[in-house]
Amino acid sequence: MSEIRTRIPTLYLVLPCYNEEEVISKTAVVVKDKLTRMADAGLITRESKALFVNDGSTDNTLRMLHDLSKQDSFYGVLSFAGNYGHQSAILAGMMEARHYADAVVTIDADLQQDIEALDDFIAAYMSGCDVVYGVRNDRKTDGFMKRATATMYYKLMHALGSSAITNSADYRLMSAKALEALSEYEESSLFLRGLIPTMGFASDVVYFDVKAREAGQSKYTVKKMMRLAIDGITSCSIRPLHIIGTLGFLTVLATLVLIVISLIDWINGKNVPGYTTMVIVMLALGGVILLSLGVIGEYVGKSYMESKHRPRYIVDSVVLRECRKREED
């Protein structure tokens, strides 16, 4: 554990946005009110800010964000040239904010994650933690299928060697020191929930409630969730490849056993048609081969994309007024 901190931190909130015009105005009011109350209580400095990250929105989100930043220097705006995804938006916001803030907290722009938990995040930070994970108290706001699949997914992740914390969200605090270390990671395939726990910094957990969305709809489609789930597994572990190797060995072993049994039956003059058995075995082997090729293909594809060394995102503009560079510890 790091030493207990005594200096009041400057906090930056990073809020990724994609077509959030229905909630931006209310979110801006809630965020400023919360950080103002925290500053009044002496928990954070008055230089603390909110940094919205526009992830290529196609509605009025960017215009509304620029209007906010013109009216009040409390609001900053980082805008992508296109849509690069939620994980890239979070990373870009943290990388920009680390130059000015002692601690950075990422939170969704719809504020379904309880913003009042920020006090607990700062308390953990002051106690010496460099990373503080937000973990959901429960999943009552999710449907049955989403709860069931989330539970199975985390169990699968842990079985495959991932360090991701069960029911954790992209609602977390990272110190400037931790963010500087994170900036050295260069992979383009991002799964921050699995990557950050591997860094080894002193950490803690803050539990929070999830509220129902007040306006608009979630932009996380089933397709995006599936992509994130696959990235989470393939980015954090090569154990699926080990499983394929083991499965291949067991298949070869079972085949040798069947060959021996078939030879014994042939020597003893037994005439076993075996048509159904043959079809089942062929279909099973075909399924295993195709599944194995799919898993291997995911890893090959990731290696191919990483070899291109393309930027993870392209920043179109950054608006941050009345801020100063962070003093080094």
Any descriptors?
329 residues, alpha/beta, Spore Coat Polysaccharide Biosynthesis Protein SpsA, Chain A, 8-stranded mixed β-sheet, elongated
Task: Kindly describe this structure.
The chain is of the alpha/beta class. The protein has 2 domains: 236 residues, Spore Coat Polysaccharide Biosynthesis Protein SpsA, Chain A (Alpha-Beta Complex), CATH 3.90.550.10; 70 residues. The protein is 47% helix and 15% strand. The chain has 10 helices and 8 strands. Strands 7-5-6-4-1-2-3-8 form an 8-stranded mixed β-sheet, sandwiched between helices. The protein is elongated and about 90 Å long. The protein starts with 10 loop residues before the first strand and ends in a 10-residue tail after the last strand. 32% of the residues are buried.
Strand content: 5-15%
The total beta strand count reads 8
* DSSP helical segment count: 10
Number of domains: 2
Contiguous low-pLDDT stretches (5 residues minimum) are none
Largest sheet: 8 strands, mixed
Helical fraction equals: 40-55%
What's the CATH superfamily of the largest domain, by name?
Spore Coat Polysaccharide Biosynthesis Protein SpsA, Chain A
Mean pLDDT: 82
Task: Predict the CATH topology of the largest domain.
Answer: Spore Coat Polysaccharide Biosynthesis Protein SpsA, Chain A
Q: Can you write the helix and strand succession as a string?
A: EHEHEHEHEHEHHEHHHE
Corresponding CATH architecture of the largest domain = Alpha-Beta Complex
Structural class from helices and strands? alpha/beta
CATH class descriptor of the largest domain: Alpha Beta
Shape: elongated
